[in-house]
Design brief:
By secondary structure, this protein is mainly α. The protein folds into two domains: about 140 residues, Tetracycline Repressor, domain 2 (Orthogonal Bundle); about 130 residues. Helices cover about 80% and strands about 0% of the residues. The chain is built from 14 helices and no strands. Helix 8 runs antiparallel to helix 9. The longest helix is centred in the first third of the chain and has 25 residues.
């Protein structure tokens, strides 16, 4: 029996490994968070919740565009990735996928994704998806080698999925831009913690992250604290738009305050332990807040 299983499994190993390499290009865990943001925005928009067909096309189109942007980013940064232990195992660095093949797949993916959104969802959603790709690939990725402003630019690309989901079912209004602002601000505590934890690797690769240009960490800590602090009042703005009740209000305050306290500790101590705690808190904050948003209007 064991020999029979091995006889079937062994020939599949190269196929599975190749599939895993292609999935790694898309940064699946980050992609799932992006799609969650898109889905929540589509539900919260005035015309939501959308039909399953519209939601499916919106998620598929966004996934193709976001996966393409991630792959293009790795194509442009293959030399830098090779210099950092945290990225040295990526498929392009290891040579398990070729640069021309990944570029081709990336361009096909973004074209197909934008076309799906344009034909099945709407031109606004397609335009926003294309804008997110351009911002991430053309602006943010090269800027990482030239200016610490790259995080502020990259955060725009990271927040645009909120508008993509919203545009799938309704016009962009103050509520849409509020959700965009929440996702935008959230990225600063998240990425400043990452930038501090891997500052030596970024420096070795020639990346002009804020923690490299200003190595004391004061500026990174201040940005993380400012954004985390602003998130508390900004996250309460939806209370005026939806019948959210006390569950959302108290939950948003609790999540935001906890993250802000950890951002303050990071800003004060600038230790790796504090940065890691802030990173973990940020990974809880955004999904938690989105779930609280869903519990109000949907329930």
């Amino acid at each position: 029996m064991r020999q029979a299983v091995l006889a079937v499994a062994l020939p599949l190993r190269p196929v599975v490994a190749r599939a895993a390499d292609w999935l790694a290009l898309g940064k699946v865990r980050l992609l799932l968070l992006v799609l969650f943001v898109v889905a929540v925005a589509a539900v919260l928009a005035p015309g939501g919740p959308p039909s399953w067909s519209v939601l499916g096309l919106t998620l598929l189109g966004t996934a193709l565009v976001a996966g393409s942007a991630s792959a293009a980013n790795q194509c442009l940064e293959v030399r830098q990735d090779a210099l950092m232990p945290r990225t040295a195992s990526r498929p392009l660095v290891r040579g398990t996928l070729s640069l021309p093949a990944v570029w081709c797949a990336s361009l096909v993916s973004v074209t197909l994704g934008v076309a799906l959104l344009a034909c099945g969802v709407g031109r606004m959603a397609a335009a926003l998806a294309l804008a997110s790709w351009i911002t991430y690939v053309v602006c943010y990725t090269p800027l990482k080698r030239h200016s610490p402003l790259n995080t502020a630019v990259g955060a725009v690309a990271g927040a645009l999925p909120a508008l993509i989901g919203w545009a799938a079912t309704g016009p962009l209004d103050l509520r849409a831009w509020t959700l965009f602002t929440i996702v935008y601000l959230w990225q600063f505590p998240h990425f400043m913690a990452i930038a501090w934890l891997y500052r030596r690797q970024y420096a070795q690769a020639g990346m002009k992250m804020l923690t490299v240009v200003e190595p004391s960490g004061r500026a990174a800590g201040l940005q993380a604290l400012l954004a985390a602090g602003l998130l508390v009042p900004v996250s309460l703005l939806p209370v005026g738009f939806y019948p959210l009740g006390n569950l959302y209000a108290w939950g948003a305050v609790a999540l935001g305050s906890f993250q802000a306290v950890l951002a303050w500790r990071f800003a004060i101590t600038r230790s790796e332990a504090a940065a890691r705690r802030l990173l973990h808190a940020s990974l809880v904050y955004l999904p938690g807040l989105l779930v609280l948003l869903l519990l109000g209007p949907v329930g």
